Amino acid sequence: MGRHLLPVSGALALFLLLWASFRFSPGGFLLALGFSFPLYLGLLRWQGRLLQRGPSQAALERLAMKEAWRKGGFLRPEDLKAFLSPSEAERLLEGLVGRGLCRKEGEGYRF
């Protein structure tokens, strides 16, 4: 049901707005259904594509920096295991080192 929350909310909002604007008439009900259902399908498809792509590289870097802030400025790849696999976390942190945003210290990274 979590994946359907946004499309159902958008379609329900449009449905109620249209149905109320036609003063709750039977014709307005059918018209509101006719416009709301394609909106539901469009939002479901859009959200599915967005979730399938996953987070961007910039979002992952921000996530690593926020996690480092919570950990006192020192981060190990294992600290990101809730979000990324260890190899992906290592690659992400090495990319940040390459850009000069942090430095490697032993088994972790200092921000």
Outline the structure in words.
- This protein has 111 residues and is mainly alpha-helical.
- 65% of the residues lie in helices and 7% in strands.
- The chain is built from four helices and three strands.
- The protein has helices spanning 5-21, 26-53, 57-70, 86-98; strands at residues 74-75, 103-105, 108-110.
TL;DR?
With 111 residues, the protein is mainly α. It has helices at 5-21, 26-53, 57-70, 86-98, and strands at residues 74-75, 103-105, 108-110. The two termini are 39 Å apart.
* Low-confidence runs: none
Q: Tell me the major beta sheet.
A: 3 strands, antiparallel
Category by helix and strand content: mainly alpha
Cα separation of the termini: 39 Å
Q: Approximately how much helix is present in the residues?
A: 55-70%
Q: What percentage of the residues does DSSP assign to strands (E)?
A: 5-15%
Number of helices, counting only DSSP H or I runs of 4 residues or more? 4
Average pLDDT confidence is 94
* Overall number of strands: 3
The helix-strand sequence is HHHEHEE
Strand order of the largest sheet: 1-3-2
Using the CA coordinates, give the radius of gyration. Answer: 23 Å
Shape: rod-shaped
